[in-house]
Write a structure and sequence with these properties.
mainly alpha; 3-stranded parallel β-sheet; 12 strands
Length: 467
């Protein structure tokens, strides 16, 4: 198997949104495949027909697409492979690796109840495992795989190391129910084999499944994949991440205004590390990623760290790309789209907007001065800066700006001179200027705003405020 190209897969159940844990699993599979020049496949495990919905499937597609986790080929439906799964169960039966079990649910339940009462193991041992075919009744039956009763099964795990399971703790797992439907544990193995998956990277809550799934691989004479069971994500209190922690779906984080590269960077750092590197690009993550960098301890989700990394990514993103990302954010969050003029203005102002903005809402708050139009209506805090004295000084400023060269040093000199003429420090004029130009308490520097707005618009806004 070592000379075969790496093939990984992400196999979510479409019963809800793509949550953070699922996105991190998808990311690790994607990074490992891309790092090794292999394939990253997507399988929708939709056998639970009562809970699986097309809407949830679409949400998974959108979440992966937003993060940039492109999959190779078409997404596969597990439900559509039910016939193939049943065929494999029949092959196992015919080879003697599995057997017909006629025990009813009531009989199994009664056995377990009696075992609990005696304090004995509730692991069901079917009386039909070694029965003669001539003794079999004409009745519905399930197909069970024959698990070894002695010795051990060793799961060779790239993250957890060798995990040993005593075979006397394994049951004869049902692979085909009495109604002819395959079980999930069989479907997963058949699908992984048929799709050529040779590296199974998934949450460590599936670790116990590996020993049972290996029964199918061995019964069919198939190569067992490389297992890599990654620790789950916990909340800041150290408990398994859940809705109680405010755990959101990937699309909800997008609607909160976090940039995709920042989210991807943060998810990669949840349980995986490359030295002391915290901030890195997607290209660097691909170049560096390896299973040996995954730790055994659960990672803790920290919103502050996410916001910090997001801000770093916003600061280095290309201006035009940032405008596109913001358009996507506005759409997902149900906000009004930008006009072509606003997009052009936003890109032009981006140099003084993207530093220290951790999310798109924070960036857009700073950008309010360029996205709005006259007359500027100051918010409550800004309005306090526009008292009668301040308005009078702004009125004096406009003639000086009419003839000044529109460069930062010159503009600072003009404002500085006027402030000194009134016995004020430059900072004392910053509040009224900010209120007049943006109407907000949060904005870029007043001189950056003046440069972006241009002479005519700056003077008009100051005139409006002065009257």
């Amino acid at each position: 198997m070592n000379d075969r190209p790496v093939v990984t897969r992400f196999a979510p159940s479409p019963t809800g949104y793509l949550h953070i844990g699922g996105a991190r699993t998808a990311l690790f599979n994607w990074l490992f495949a891309r790092r090794n020049g292999g394939k990253f496949l997507l399988r929708i495990e939709d056998t639970d027909r009562a809970r699986s919905t097309p809407e949830a499937t679409e949400a998974i597609f959108r979440g992966l697409t937003w993060l940039g986790l492109d999959w190779d080929g078409d997404a596969v439906s597990q439900f559509e492979g039910a016939t193939r799964h049943a065929e494999v169960a029949q092959e196992m039966l015919e080879s003697g690796a599995a057997y017909k079990c006629f025990s009813t649910q009531d009989e199994i339940a009664a056995f377990r109840e009696a075992a609990r009462a005696k304090g004995a193991s509730t692991l069901f041992r079917s009386p039909w495992r070694d029965g003669a075919e001539g003794d079999q009744p004409d009745a519905p039956f399930a197909i069970r795989v024959k698990a070894p009763r002695e010795g051990v099964t060793v799961i060779k795990d790239a993250v957890q190391g060798d995990v040993t399971v005593r075979n006397d703790q394994l049951d004869d797992m049902i692979v085909l129910r009495s109604d002819g439907t395959p079980v999930y544990m069989l479907a997963v193995v058949v699908d992984d084999h048929d799709m050529g998956v040779n590296h199974v990277i998934r949450g460590d809550d599936h670790l116990n499944n590996a020993a049972r799934q290996m029964l199918v691989y061995k019964a069919m004479g198939w190569d067992v994949p490389v297992w890599a069971h990654i620790p789950l994500i916990h909340g800041e209190d150290g408990k398994k991440l859940s809705k109680r922690h405010g755990a959101l779906g990937v699309e909800e984080w997008q609607a909160e205004g976090y940039p995709a590269p920042g989210m991807l960077n943060y998810l990669a750092r949840l349980g995986w590390s490359h030295g002391d590197d915290e901030f890195f690009t997607t290209e660097q993550a691909i170049a560096w990623f390896g299973l040996d960098g995954i730790g055994k301890a659960p990672a803790r989700f920290d919103t502050k760290k996410l916001a910090n990394l997001s801000g770093q990514h916003i600061a280095v993103m290309d201006d035009a790309a940032l405008v596109e990302e913001i358009e996507g954010y506005l759409t997902v969050s149900g906000q009004e789209k930008l006009t072509d003029v606003q997009k052009s203005d936003l890109e032009r102002a981006m140099y003084c907007l993207k530093d220290r903005a951790r999310t798109y809402p924070e960036l857009l708050e700073k950008a309010a001065f360029i996205l709005t139009s006259r007359p500027i209506v100051p918010d409550e805090k800004s309005a306090k800066a526009l008292d009668l004295v301040s308005r009078s000084i702004l009125g004096e400023l406009t003639p000086h700006l009419q003839n000044a060269s529109w460069e930062r040093d010159t503009l600072e000199g003009v404002v500085q001179s006027l402030a000194e003429a009134h016995g004020l420090k430059l900072g004392k004029l910053a509040g009224p200027l900010r209120a007049a130009l943006s109407g907000r308490a949060v904005s870029p520097s007043v001189f950056d705003m003046m440069l972006v707005l241009g002479r005519d618009e700056t003077v008009r806004r100051l005139d409006d405020a002065a009257t």
